[in-house]
Amino acid sequence: MPQANIVTPAETFDPDIFRFVSWYRKHFRPEDSWQAKLVSVRFQGVMTVAEVFLNLNGKHLATHKVGYTPFEVDLTPALRFGTDNVIAVRVDSRVQPHVPLEGALKISPSGLYYFATRTERSRPAPKLYGFHLFGGIQRDVELRVTDKLHIERVYYVTDCSQLILVIKSVLSAKARLRCRSFLVLAFASEPSLTLAYDL
After folding, report:
1. With a threshold of 0.85, does the pTM exceed it?
2. For residue 72, with 0-12 CB atoms within 10 Å meaning exposed, 13-18 middle and 19 or more buried, which class applies?
C-alpha cells in the first residue's frame, strides 16, 4: 500500500479510467499478545467511498467518504484469535455527486459554493484536468496495536505572537506552545495517570 485501483501509462492517461468499484483484501493472523490490546487499521486516504469488512462472515465495520481524509477502524471486537483473519475494503471510485471533492457544486445566495443535498437534483462536477481523483487506496495503511490506555492523537498550536517577539528581541526569547492530547481509556474504571510533555 498505497496502490491505485489501476496502473496506467502516463501517455494514455484518462481521468475517468479510475471510475469503478474495486476490492482490496489482506490476510493476517493476530498474535496472542494482542488479546489484551486494542487493534485497529488506519487509512490515510481512500478515494472516494470506503467500506471496511472483517472476516469471512463479512462483518461491516465502517464506511468512510472523502478520499483525502484519514480514518481509523477498530478491529478489536471482530478479531478471531488462533486463525486467519481477512480485512476486506470495498472502494467505490465512481462519480459521487454528494461527496466532496467532486459532485454537484452549486452557489448559495451568499456566493459560497456548497454540495447538493440528497434531495436536490445533482450533476457531476466538470472534469478538472490537472487535478485528478485517483481511485483505490491511494495513501498509506497501517495496522495499529495499542494498549487500552493510549494517546489517540495530539493537537498542538504554536503562538505566533510570541514568536514575533522572539524575532524582534533575542533577549526576550520566549515562545508558547499549546498542546491538547486525546486519550483513549478502554477500561471499566478510570485509572490514575499522569500525562507529561517533554519538549
Report:
1. no
2. middle
